[in-house]
Design brief:
The protein has 213 residues and is mostly helical. The protein has 11 helices and no strands. Helix 7 packs antiparallel against helix 9. The model has no long low-confidence stretch (mean pLDDT 92).
Length: 213
């Protein structure tokens, strides 16, 4: 059970903070008179469950890559051989619970949550696995930023008659891309200092096409 909790990466819950601006922008559009704290609480639980399901497939599919990373080689699935059957069952339990909660919120939150799930699949799973494709790795992963913004938005507004400004969505997306690019740069610097560049490419094939510039 400890291993399943670890691969859920509950220590990454802080990333759901990107939902909050979506809530605030929606409240501005509704004059701050449409707050249902139970819906907001359930929305965050649903988002956390979906994010954890994405981390589960990430940890399983990356286990042979993570062993080349000086820090990630201590992750649960690198050290322990959990069965695929149990892992996939755990993944679908998380998905089921998340979708069940999101259905209770509203249809638009539910659809956005499905897109959140699909984003995790195309980022991690073959034949897509965009995390191994140069530039797309940054752009697809950072797409989770506007998805989270929409999750926050639909916690407040149960309609598509009004939507967040496209300019803000692009800003949110590209801000995430900047952070992802910074992460890529930091990993190159880290491997140069504490490991070897050839291990960096074994860890993430897209680094064959990246350099510090």
């Amino acid at each position: 059970m400890e291993s399943y909790i670890k691969i859920s990466r509950l220590d990454h819950i802080i990333k759901q903070i990107f939902i909050i601006p979506g809530i605030f922008i929606a409240l501005i559009y509704t004059s701050y008179d449409n707050i249902n704290f139970l819906i907001i609480f359930l929305g965050f639980i649903s988002a956390i469950l979906t994010a954890s399901s994405n981390y589960v497939i990430n940890e399983y599919l990356d286990r042979n890559f993570d062993k080349h990373h000086p820090l990630k080689n201590s992750r649960a699935l690198v050290k322990k051989n959990l069965t695929f059957k149990n892992l996939i069952s755990y993944y679908f339990i998380l998905i089921f619970l998340s979708l069940l909660i999101s259905w209770k919120i509203n249809i638009y939150f539910f659809i956005t949550n499905i897109i959140f799930i699909i984003s995790g699949i195309i980022y991690n799973v073959e034949p897509f696995r965009f995390k191994d494709k140069v530039y797309l790795d940054v752009l697809i992963e950072s797409l989770n930023n506007p998805i989270r913004l929409f999750l926050g938005w639909f916690m407040i507004i149960d309609s598509i008659s009004i939507l967040p400004p496209i300019s803000f969505l692009l800003f949110y997306w590209f801000s995430g891309a900047f952070l992802m690019s910074s992460k890529r740069l930091s990993e190159i610097i880290f491997f140069k200092k504490f490991s070897k560049i050839r291990n960096l490419i074994k860890y993430r094939p897209s680094y064959k096409h990246y350099n510090e510039n």
